[in-house]
Amino acid sequence: MTHQHVLTPGKSKLNYTPTARVLLVIVFSIISVFVLIPLYALVLGTFKGGAQLFISGLNLTLDPKQLHTLAWRYLFTGVMSDGTLDPHNYFIWYRNSLFIVLVQGSLTLFVSSWVAYGFAMYNFKGKSLLFFCVLMVMMIPFEILMLPMYTQINAMGMRNSYWAIILPFLANMSAIFFFRQFLTGVPYELVDAGRVDGCNEYSIFLRIIMPILKPAYASMAVLVGMAAWNSLLWPMLVISDMKKYTVPIGLNTLWSPYGNNYDLMITGACFAILPLLILFLAAQKFIIEGMTAGSVKG
């Protein structure tokens, strides 16, 4: 007889000895230090001048006499070190990126999970072939798809719009594969029970499947949101209006002809980390739940 042990989120069956717990704390503390050191160097670099960064790069040297907030002031107000005004649209770029992440992330999760639900819960002709195509598309480099995608977006008259950035990525192949694998562990009897209770196919997905997918949504939201926020090549290809630039494109325009705006670039990049950090912290509980839920050992 095969015994199945399901690990309940938040309830570990592992009992560690006091010595093992101390060792785990030490090991993870060391790992945390190595993770936080680059972040510390990045934040410290925002208070240094561009010339100093060009000479010594990002380092952990803390000299209060050389620290200043000129880069922060220039980034947020456009006031340069000599007092002249050089206005730019950093907050507009920030707003555009937030809008794209929210819209693209929400729609991508919904569309991809809907497609994955079909692959996981229904049997239809050509199902295996279509899923094989999903796997094949995951293996194709994005650079190969850019030209046909751009041609299609241009033919649809959507170039230089937010939808040109969002629409091509609504059906995310990686997300479809992830959701499909998650749903294969969901008992099909739940779907039958929904039909018995009078739910149609749309209600089954909205009322039964989507709540079950909450941990998977949280896990994939971080990956989808990170990809949308950091995307540079495709938005730069389809957007020409500066007022519609995203943060990565906007920061790229802040380079001076001599390439010495390292302090400004680092400051803008440091501030741009905040939304991703907040997203990860907000979804952390569900990410852990998604990693442990349904873990079965035979």
Sum this structure up briefly:
With 298 residues, the chain is mainly alpha-helical. It has helices at 18-45, 50-56, 70-77, 90-121, 127-139, 142-155, 162-166, 173-183, 189-196, 201-212, 214-230, 233-238, 247-253, 262-292; strands at 5-6, 296-297. It has a domain at 96-245: MetI-like fold (Orthogonal Bundle), CATH 1.10.3720.10.
What's the β-strand tally? 2
Cα-atom radius of gyration: 24 Å
Strand order of the largest sheet: 1-2
Q: Architecture of the domain at 96-245 in CATH?
A: Orthogonal Bundle
Protein model, in words:
- The protein has 14 helices and 2 strands; from the N terminus they run βααααααααααααααβ.
- The protein has 298 residues and is mainly α.
- The protein has a domain of 150 residues: MetI-like (MetI-like fold, Orthogonal Bundle), CATH 1.10.3720.
- Strands 1-2 form a two-stranded antiparallel sheet.
